[in-house]
Amino acid sequence: MKAFLKFALLAALGMIPGWLSAQTLAAPGLIPGIFSTATGVSFNGPFTFQVVTNGLAGVTFCYAFNATPAATVAGTCDGAPTQTYSAPFTISGTTQVQVIATQAGHTNSAVTSFTYTIAPFLPVAGTYAFNPTVQLSGPQGTNLVYTTNGTTPTQAACSPTNGTALANAGTVALTGTTTLQFISYVPGICASSSVNTAVYTVQAATTWYIRTDGGTRFSAAVPTGQCNGKFDASYASTGGTGTNQNCAYNDFRYLYSDNNGTIGWVMAGGDTAIIRGCTALASQQNPSNPNCRLGWDTGANGNPPNSWCPGTANQVCFNPTMPSGDATHHTKILGQCVGAGNCNTQNGTVAGNTSQLFAGFGLTWSFDLRGAHYVDIWGIEFTTHNHQTGGTNCTIGMGSPAFPIGCSSSPPVDDYAQNGFFFNSTSSNISFQDVYAHGFNSSPFFGPIGPGILMTRVASNFSAQAGWQFDDGLSSPDDPAATIDASYVTMNWNGCYEEYPIVHAIPARVCYDTTSSGFGDSWSGQNTTMTRFTCDHCTSDYNTKDAFIGPHTAITNMSMTNSESIGNMGADWKWGGLVAPQTLSFINNLTVASCMRLSAAFPGTPSNYNQFLTNFCRAGGNAFANVITAGSNWLIANNTVVGYNPTFFLFDCPLPTLNFSPCASTINFTNNIFYGITSGYTGAPFNPGQAPGLYFFLNGSITSTGSHNIEFGIRNGDTCGGNIICSDPLFVNEPSAGVPPESTLDNFNFHPSSSSPALLAGTTYTGLPATDHYGTATTSPPVIGAANQATGVISPTALKGVVVKGAKIQ
Questions:
Q1: Distance from C-alpha of 675 to C-alpha of 212, rounded to nearest angstrom
Q2: What span, in angstroms and rounded, lies between the C-alpha atoms of 475 and 555?
Q3: Distance between CA atoms of residues 697 and 590, nearest Å
């Protein structure tokens, strides 16, 4: 689709003799009414843009993408990256366009700058198992004309002469197979874009099958292909001869490639694919039957007989755009455990019968979900078998020095993958259930998001950068309506490369932090907004940086319940940002603030897992590092926080009010246990012999209210007395007095003993949960802290991230 963005001079050139040398050209300006803001407008594309010269003789327009144009000699554009405008130009993606006017004898104009975010209209043209509804939108301030009867839309004098008009944006419901065509135009100018055409085909929903005993894909390009992929049957069951038989494929990639040049999903939007297993071609390097490879088959090239991505570099040999479903017809990618009912990825383990997809040979991203909508991915183990040719584990992208050796990214490429699922802000209504993603050289989940991300029993562990890296390197924002609703999501040991094959109970073969060119967040945000984030029974333990989304992502509504954060090298909990007001419920959560924990040996890991870790307790050693905006009212209730960190809670206002201007807000602490242990560490940020500080407010306008809390072994807390209890909470198996090592907290029992002052000492409040962290019914009055009394119940935390299939570690 094309549309014209027109730049015009806002003033005519002065032509009085003697004044030419002093005349400054007016800056090319945006025509009023086309755009209401100066930057960040999102619209469909790619687009062709035209500069309107208004017939001004001798004026040259210089432009540049993502740079400032230059005309050192008036009237002449300097050249790369500066270009001289002579014809309409096309842009795509997120691009800053800057334009100046220049003429001999005149002073150059000021720079006109505009940033455009180009995104496709939704859903993409293609085949659907339902009648799709298409959302059309043009550049801000434009109108649309569309047809669905095969004729060409036209307009004259800003009114449709053929087709139906839409004011800037709207939805079009399609029935059957439809050719949709539309144009856009600017009211008052009326010049139309070229015609955009998209064909939508509706067919009956189909279930596709991948089995180890299936066959190759039949297509027009591969007439010798054995199976049509539409039957849950082996090739042998059809007689084991012939072509285009009613049998399953034997490779997941046959869903979008015929391994001969044809790229495109056989699935339609609303279809289902069931993965029972794959069988590698004899030519595949490092086969792992019945697991299913993604990307090239060898590190040498993608040539026959391994033409999964003909003409495509190994780094981008991933699937084309997913066929999207709609709200009632989801596109589904299912592992075999879904139908069998034995999926189980809770608490960061894989047990049962998930189907494995593994990526390799240098893939930068492994599974493309950009622009996908209403897609379910359930019952999948997603990983990479990170090793160098010859079987040695290798590192690339994160961490220095490379240990034990760096990966080769040039042919022959080593067998690794950087990132897993690939998102952008138009990825929406995608659900992950019983998914275990692990072992990537960067992040299993990568990129910003749109609305409707749902995660249930998902683990994202042992990846070298982050559990989910929302920052795509360009700080691309999430969609303003972006939401995440997560339950039983685990993100442990990120910042650490995973060993392959897995030998240790905790396969963190080498870990890096920010001082050793690594990273190590669990959820890792960017400077953007997010409408809602809920997380219930979420776990972020032993990551080498921060354990939550950081203060960068401004979440309007956040709920964190029944979750835990233990032994992270950075902050255990970070949130906040430039939205006002924010609502927060932080209830029934467990925290072990032990930011030095990974400096010591850890049971179940390789002995030298931490050899490159030095940046412990980064950013001041705060367990909670939060930004609260004016007018916010936060509830932090029925939590248990124990540990050594120098400061438990640090609060501040967001920029530009940081530390200076008031941002009046209230944080309500109710029914919490805060148990501090004086650390034996003497280096920064620890002060010898000093107990952890409970509260540290960088802005005095923030109000803290404490009620029915137990505060013990801390400083800078609430005034003792009344309903603030400053005595030992008497946990079950509480650490002995003195300075116990941080490993003491690995198996900390958060339950109060029978003599604890926490029992029946809490208060009721709006939002009081019906159960404690472990699902035990809330008493009346409630117990202070996240756990009710439960004699002998231990909360194991030391072996998070064990990878188990069946009864054996593999």
A1: 54
A2: 16
A3: 22
The SS3 assignment for 347 reads helix
pLDDT in tens, 68-112: 999 999 899 999 899 988 876 666 566 788 888 888 888 888 888
Chain centre distance of CA 481? 15
Classified as helix, coil or strand, 416 is: coil
| Pairing of β 590-593 and β 564-566 | parallel
- What pLDDT digit, counting tens, does each position of 433-489 carry? 999 999 999 999 999 999 999 999 999 999 999 999 999 998 899 998 999 999 999
- Centroid of chain to Cα 702: 31
SS3 (DSSP) at 255: helix
DSSP secondary structure of 584-602: EEEES-EEEE-TTGGGS--
CA distance 753 to 735: 13
The first and second tokens of residue 66, run together, are 């993502």
- Token pair in block for residue 131: 């009648």
- 254-296: per-residue pLDDT in tens? 999 999 989 999 999 999 999 999 999 999 999 999 999 999 9
Phi (first) and psi of residue 78, to 5 degrees: -70, -25
Q: pLDDT tens for residues 324-353?
A: 999 999 999 999 999 877 887 665 555 568
SS3 category, 622: strand
From 468, 469, 376, 374, select the one nearest 426 (Cα to Cα). Answer: 374
Alpha carbon distance 210, 232 (integer Å)? 8
Q: Are 375 and 327 in contact (CB under 8 A)?
A: no
Task: Check residues 769 and 59 and name the one with the higher pLDDT.
Answer: 769
